[in-house]
Design brief:
Elements lengths: L2 H20 L25 E6 L4 E6 L12 H13 L8 E2 L3 H4 L14 E2 H9 L4 H12 L2 H14 L22 H14 L11 E4 L2 E4 L4 H4 L3 E9 L3 E10 L2 E10 L2 H18 E7 L6 E6 L5 E5 L4 E6 L7 E6 L3 E2 L7 E9 L2 E10 L8 H13 L1
Parallel strand pairs: 11-15
Antiparallel strand pairs: 1-2, 1-9, 3-4, 5-6, 7-8, 8-9, 10-13, 11-12, 12-17, 14-16, 16-17
Helix pairs in contact: 2-5, 4-5, 5-6
Length: 391
């Protein structure tokens, strides 16, 4: 049994247990890992938090992950998702000029200071929304993408459903307070992770420290950008009822960790508590790349095709996050779907990797065909039919 597989199963078991335990922790108490691991998450002065390893999508620690909270300007991450999607689909473009509506101009709260009758580009509005957290810029973008903020909000909720944000509902694009405008730490982590994974080409915007528009320079409210050089995003949020919130992303070496901290009592607290969580995650856990996307891990026999072998592997990098230095025992089962008969599509499931611990499956990863195999000629098909009958 390989050490890599041992690490993989142990980590999946541990993190699953950590998650189950953490979900029951009461506010004002630190989340801890099971006692036999000797791991204790730090105390975090927040209403809720969620700490996740991005590459492996594994939960490291959490507090009240499914409690409904007011997301405030963290809402703008969903607005950004839809704007980036519209850009990718060529519905809008970065240089497109936007006429500012009175509705956008009169938006309350934080502002970019756009003005009616003064056209502004989509690119400028994106910077104003993300860096300056401008509610006016956010509404202007929503109107540009969907025609109206109400129509845009419908798309926000549809996208939330598609991304699996089961405890999230939006009523506006900017995050203004409303009883029916809510999310959770778990959902916000999923949103942030999806945004980074789906639109990496726009990731640099979240790390810009300040932006100047209309002769007004405003700093990014994410103070970690000045404190920790590994931090490169993502977004702050604040209202009186939501408290001070921060979703932060940090990359050290090949590892990236995402922290969601909600409901602290000050700008300073959301910064220090987020830094505490990030440091703990990097210091306490390790991440290992087990299989690289597209690399063959097994060669299987194919029948009735123009090729007689199919290379099997994984359609994404397979990472595992585990406590530093830990290497407990477990079992792994690689199952293939036999016989494999052409035609075979690239990416078609041809098996699965299952990791078990104490007889219980804790992880299942599809094994897929890395090749496309069309049907062979008549002779090949007839001969392989005989081979299959004998087999």
């Amino acid at each position: 049994m390989s050490n890599a597989f041992r690490i993989m199963a142990l980590a999946a078991t541990l993190i699953s247990t950590v998650s189950a335990y953490a979900d029951t922790v009461a506010p004002a108490l630190p989340t801890t890992t099971p006692s036999n691991t000797n791991l204790v998450a730090p105390y975090v002065a927040a209403k809720a938090y969620y700490l996740e390893e991005i590459e492996s999508h594994q939960l490291l620690a959490t507090l009240n992950p499914d409690d409904r909270v007011e997301p405030a300007s963290l809402t703008k991450l969903m607005t950004a998702y839809l704007v980036f999607e519209a850009l990718r689909n060529h519905k809008i473009n970065l240089n497109q000029s936007v006429n500012v509506s009175e509705h956008a101009w009169r938006a309350p709260g934080s502002r970019m200071f756009i003005e009616p009758n003064k056209p502004v580009s989509v690119d400028e509005l994106i910077h104003g929304m993300i860096i300056q957290s401008g509610n006016d810029a956010t509404i202007a973008l929503a109107e540009t993408v969907a025609g109206s903020e109400d129509a845009f909000v419908s798309r926000m909720n549809a996208t939330a459903s598609r991304l699996g944000l089961s405890n999230t509902h939006f009523v506006n694009a900017a995050g203004l307070p409303d009883p029916q405008h809510y999310s959770t730490a778990r959902d916000l982590a999923k949103l942030a992770s999806s945004l980074m994974n789906d639109f990496p080409e726009y990731s640099s915007v979240f790390s810009i420290k300040e932006y100047r528009y209309n002769n007004i320079t405003q700093p990014n409210r994410n103070r970690l950008l000045w404190i920790d050089p590994s931090v490169d995003g993502l977004k702050t949020g604040h209202t009186e009822s939501a408290g001070y919130c921060l979703i932060s992303s940090a990359k050290r070496g090949q590892r990236r960790i995402l922290s969601v901290v909600l409901g602290t009592n000050s700008d300073k607290a959301r910064t220090s508590e987020s830094q505490k969580l990030l440091n703990w995650g990097f210091q306490t856990f390790e991440s290992t790349l087990l299989f690289k996307q597209g690399s063959p891990v097994k060669i299987l026999t194919a029948y009735k095709g123009s090729l007689h072998e199919v290379h099997a592997g994984f359609n994404h990098d397979v990472w595992i996050t585990h406590p530093a230095g830990d290497s407990s025992h477990f079992h792994e089962i690689l199952t293939t779907f036999q016989p494999i008969v052409a035609p075979v599509l690239q990416g078609q499931p041809v098996g699965k990797l299952e990791i078990t611990y104490n007889g219980k499956t804790i992880e299942s990863v599809p094994l897929v065909s890395l090749d496309a195999i069309p049907l062979g000629n008549a002779f090949t098909r007839a001969w392989d039919s005989i081979r299959l009958m004998i087999k």
